[in-house]
Predict the structure.
Amino acid sequence: MLAALILNSLLAREPTDGWLPKWQSYILAESKTRYCDTETGEELGWLVSPFLSGFAYGYLATNETEWLDRLVDWADAWLKRAVKEPDGFVGWPKQGTGGLVEDQLFTDSLLGEAMALTPLVRLHGQVHRGGLSWRSEIDRKLDRYLQASEACFRKWDGRGCWREVKDGGVWVVPAFGIDKASGGWTAGYATRRNDGFSNPANKENAIAEWLLAMFDATGKPVYRDRAAAWFRVMKARIRTNGRYLVWNYWDPAGPWDFKPDGSTRHWVGVHPNGGYYGIDVGAIVDAFEHGVVFDRGDIDKLIATNRDFMWNQKLPGAEFRRIDGGEPDPRWPKTPGVLWVPLGKYDAKLREIFEATFQPASWGGLSTTPWNVWRSRTG
C-alpha cells in the first residue's frame, strides 16, 4: 500500500522542473540535421523516428500545435521521397540497409518503416480515443499517414516476410532486393517464402509496437493478432530462475535461420549492449497494457530483474549490469544494462531512479521527455 501511495504521488506531480525547456532546446537544435530529407532503409527507424516521436509527444505533453507542424514537416519530407518498386508498392531502399542477409542488397527495411510510422499512427489513435482536435488539415494528414502505414503492412506481408512458427509468428528480413540495372527483383524473390533471416528480438518488438498502434488506430484484429503472435514467441524465449528473467538477443525461428551445415546463421546469446533490452521491455509493457500475452506477474518479474538484480543499489551513482550478470563489453562500457524506464509506472523505486538520473537534453530524451510528461498526466 505504501509503495502504491508513493508511486501515485510521483506520477501525480510534474516531473523534474526544467525538463521540458531543456528538451525543447535540444530537439530544436538536433532537428537541424534534417534526417527526414536524406535517410532511407533502417536509418528511418534509428534517426528519423526519434524526432517524429518527440514532436508527437511534444504536442500531447504541451498542447502546443507547433509540434504538430514540425511533425508534419518531417513526415512529409520523408514520405515524399518514396520510390515505386517492382511490386507496385513504394519504399525507401538503401544498399546494406541493416541485418544479415541483405548487406549487399538494395532494399527497404521493414524495421525502419515501422519505427518511423509508429508515432504517426499512435497520434492518429490518440485522436480517436482521446477526442483530440486541431486544424482540419492536420487531421487529413494523419489519415494519409495511416493509409501509408496500412500500405506498408500489405507490402511486407505480400513479400512473404511473415512466418508462422511453433509458438506464434516472426518477421524475417527478405533475401532479395531491387536489381539496379533492370529495375526488377534480384533472384531471391522467387524463393522469398522460404528464405530470409529472422529479426532479432529488439527489432521484432519494435515492429510489434507498430502493429499495436495500428490496432489502436484502425480496430482491425489482424494487427493485434500479428503482434500477439510475436509476443507469444517472445514470452516462450524468456528464461527464469524463479525470480529474475533473461533472454537472448537472437534465436533461430525456422529452417531459414540455419546454414547448410546445421549451424545458426547468427550467434545466440545475451547481447552486451543493454540498450536493446530496453527496447524489448518497452514493447512488453505495451503488450501488457493492451492485454496481450504478458500479465502483471511478468511485469513484476521484470521489475525485480531490473531493480534487484541489475541495479547497483546506489542513488546517486546508479548503474546497471548486464541482464545475465556478465562482464561489460569494451564496445559498450557504459551500457551493459540500462534502466527499464517504462516499468517506472509500476514501481516507485525505478521511478525514483529515473527522475534522479534522466537527462532530458539527450538523444534518448528526444521522445522520452515529452512522453514522460504526457504519461505522468494521463496515467
Remarks:
- Residues 34-176+186-203 form one domain.
- The first strand starts at residue 83 and ends at 84.
